[in-house]
């Protein structure tokens, strides 16, 4: 092993200890015949051992399109026993500028991924699903709103709804409800405007229309 690599042992230990048991730091020696594990601080993540020949440098670092300026940060891979690992690697050079090794920091994030999934499921709300709680209304892009406008007009047409009886107005609202128009945020106000009535009136039409369904 190249003597220059030994000065990095203390750095490997320090980084590992600062990050705890889920952190593993490995020093690789890079030679013309391949790469070898020169030192391991807490080898519990990948299970690599000092002295082993390793193709890690080629497979995980050199072949990665984001590797540049002698380092690659925060890339992801899975171990053979399915641990999720976030890793960062940096090349080590001697005083002549020749590459002699690589420092690799591996973080086992398997448990964090599981906790994150659990938290996301726990914290999921109607708002995150694009729905307004209690109303069934969904936030939609403006181009979709344009489609909703066309759907409303396809039901109302050129009819002057202010001259229609209540039962006929309820019938129009029932048709809109069947097309899913009222699931969209803002549709209630748009229908009220086009029919020349208040939002409260549209709600009453809708309640009556739904009460007669089935």
TrEMBL record:
A Pfam short name: PAS_6
Top-rank taxon: Bacteria
Occurrences of domain YheO-like (ranges): 5-116
Annotated Transcriptional regulator DauR-like HTH domain residues: 148-207
Protein name as catalogued: PAS domain-containing protein
């Amino acid at each position: 092993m190249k003597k220059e690599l030994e000065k990095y042992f203390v750095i490997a230990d320090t980084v590992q200890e600062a990050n705890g048991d889920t952190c593993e730091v490995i020093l690789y020696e890079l030679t013309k015949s391949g790469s070898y594990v020169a030192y391991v601080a807490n080898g519990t993540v990948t299970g690599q051992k000092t002295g082993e020949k390793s193709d890690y440098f080629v497979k995980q670092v050199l072949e990665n399109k984001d590797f540049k300026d002698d380092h690659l940060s925060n890339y992801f891979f899975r171990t053979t026993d399915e641990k999720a690992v976030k890793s960062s690697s940096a090349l080590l050079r001697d005083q002549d500028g020749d590459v002699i090794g690589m420092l690799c920091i591996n973080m086992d994030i398997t448990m964090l991924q599981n906790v994150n999934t659990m938290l996301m499921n726990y914290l999921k709300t109607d708002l995150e699903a694009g729905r307004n709680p209690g109303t069934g209304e969904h936030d939609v892009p403006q181009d979709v709103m344009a489609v909703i406008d066309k759907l409303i007009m396809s039901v109302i047409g050129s009819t002057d709804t202010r001259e229609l009886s209540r039962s006929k107005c309820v019938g129009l609202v029932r048709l809109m409800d069947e097309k899913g128009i009222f699931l969209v945020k803002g549709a209630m106000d748009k229908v009220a405007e086009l029919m020349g009535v208040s939002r409260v009136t549209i709600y009453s039409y809708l309640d009556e229309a739904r009460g007669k369904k089935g």
